[in-house]
Write a structure and sequence with these properties.
The protein is built from 20 helices and 16 strands. It is α+β, with helices and mostly antiparallel strands and 494 residues long. Strand 2, helix 11 and strand 3 form a beta-alpha-beta unit.
């Protein structure tokens, strides 16, 4: 569990408020500050007071009080225009994000805060804490524990969810309750619920992101048997014949869209879609139009097949020449020479890649790679782009994509892959389902073994034991973040 540092120093004191407001801060009576400011009419809540209110929420919260830290972020975002160029605003934003397990973003704001107050010890301390957690993110509650708590929460309240569905009560009340029941497991989750022949469906959507399938699949596979008495748990939207979608005040069905299909490599297809009913929205808001059609496509062929097979989707303003098919018939087109993959199969589908190793003397980690395989392309691609978005998504739920790496000197070339396989098997044997291995890579200098840890501490402890008995001089752990340090788990004395 993260430890809270002491409260901020040198707080700004609003001159137009009673001296009691500052006294409450000094006395640690943060709820009094919140009550006093929120009791004011909205027009009297100045940007300065809102910033003070965010500070009070930060100080009132204990580690784990995510709703309070989220409130602080919302308040700070509302006054960004006024205070983004000051130390206190950036410090407070970084502080709230740190306790929301968004250390990469938090570090950015702390570094900005340091620009406006160079040498500030509190800010330097928080930057150091961020760097430590980014390198070794094992202080948070692991995903495997969150999954247990999430299913327990769901079991305690799912009866009410079924009652609401039986009463045909939909929309926000159902979504809000389901989100509340699943919130112990996920910081954010896309889902759909409904009735299906006397049983109930909970559909967990990765929203087109293959990397999320791994988390959702783990969650689904660890559902207690009691859940299955009434519920079907599914990963990805399922195909639905004659489906009609109502979004953005319009009804559009799979029968309303025409599709021109282009065959691509690796059995993927490119789609050019014309839908007359969608044209007004396409002109008004292109993003909304593509979002609507993406959901409709998921319902036509299934979300997991869409992730696997659809290489691109273009929306047309006029029909295209050549042979076309109805969107409702696209699934049958795909089935002709393709297997309709499941979420489990997607997480076992390996992609090979080749790279040109860096010739620079000071190459960055993994830039020596010339060949690799992975079941989770988005994580590897994001690492090389320097994009931490996927890592943040995993991190907030207590899961950690990472890799072990070790020098290959002294290891015969024909034994490199055998060594990687041995590592995977032995670590899996010691920590069980606390980890899923996603591939690996071979470089000119190092070997790499990639994984997603559902309990990082268990995985690292197992790795220490396994590496101890293997013929490598050194072994280290690194998250899939470029701008983070490594953790040494083995070092032979010279």
């Amino acid at each position: 569990m993260k430890q809270k540092p002491e409260n901020e120093t040198n707080p700004r004191t609003p001159s137009h408020l009673p001296e009691a407001l500052e006294q409450w801060h000094e006395d640690g009576q943060f709820q009094n500050i919140i009550d006093a400011i929120e009791a004011l009419p909205r027009e009297q809540q100045t940007p300065e007071l809102i910033s003070q209110l965010a500070r009070a929420y930060n100080n009132l919260a204990e580690p784990g009080d995510r709703h309070l830290f989220k409130k602080a972020v919302e308040l700070l975002e509302s006054v960004e225009k006024e205070y983004a160029g000051e130390h206190d605003w950036n410090y407070r934003m970084g502080y709230a994000l740190y306790y929301l397990d968004q250390e990469s973003k938090a570090r950015y704001y702390f570094e900005k805060a340091l620009e406006y107050r160079p040498g500030d010890e509190d800010t330097l301390e928080m930057i150091s804490l961020c760097q430590k957690v980014l390198a070794l993110p094992n202080a948070m509650k692991p995903f495997c524990e969150r999954v247990k708590e999430g299913w327990q929460s769901f079991l305690e309240g799912e009866w009410k969810l079924r009652q609401m569905l039986d009463a045909k009560q939909g929309g926000e009340p159902v979504a809000d309750l389901c989100h509340q029941l699943l919130s112990p497991a996920f910081a954010g989750l896309y889902f759909e619920v409904g009735c299906n022949g006397g049983r109930y469906d909970l559909i967990l959507s990765p929203e087109g992101d293959k990397s999320r399938i791994f988390k959702l699949l783990y969650f689904m596979e660890h559902a207690p048997k009691e859940v299955h008495e009434n519920w079907n748990i599914l990963v990805g939207r399922q195909p639905a014949n004659g489906f009609v979608l109502r979004m953005y005040d319009r009804d559009i069905g799979t029968e309303d869209a025409r599709v021109w299909v282009e065959e691509l490599d690796d059995k993927q297809i490119g789609l050019s879609i014309y839908c007359e009913k969608l044209l007004p929205l396409l002109k008004e808001n292109e993003n909304q139009a593509y979002g609507l059609m993406s959901v409709l496509l998921d319902q036509a062929i299934g979300e997991i097949p869409a992730i696997r097979y659809v290489g691109y989707m273009d929306l047309l303003e006029t029909p295209q020449e050549g042979e076309d098919i109805c969107l409702a018939d696209l699934l049958e087109y795909i089935k002709k020479d393709r297997e309709i993959v499941t979420a489990d199969q997607m997480c076992q589908w390996y992609s090979a890649y080749e790279m040109k190793p860096s010739e620079e003397e000071g190459w960055d980690l993994r830039e020596d790679v010339y060949a690799g395989v992975t079941t989770c392309i988005p994580v590897v691609s994001a690492y090389y782009r320097g994009d931490d978005g996927i890592m943040e998504d995993f991190h907030q739920d207590g899961a950690v994509p990472g890799f072990f790496y070790y020098p290959l000197d002294g290891i015969p070339r024909n034994q490199i892959l055998d060594l990687r396989d041995k590592l995977e098997q032995e670590i899996s044997g010691k920590c069980g389902d606390a980890v899923v291995f996603t591939g690996g890579a071979t470089g000119t200098e190092c070997g790499y073994l990639d994984f997603i840890a559902w309990d990082l501490t268990a995985v690292l402890n197992a790795a220490v034991e396994v590496f101890r008995n293997l013929p490598v001089k050194e072994a280290l752990f690194h998250t899939f973040r470029r701008n983070a340090g490594s953790i040494r788990i083995k070092k032979e004395e010279a």
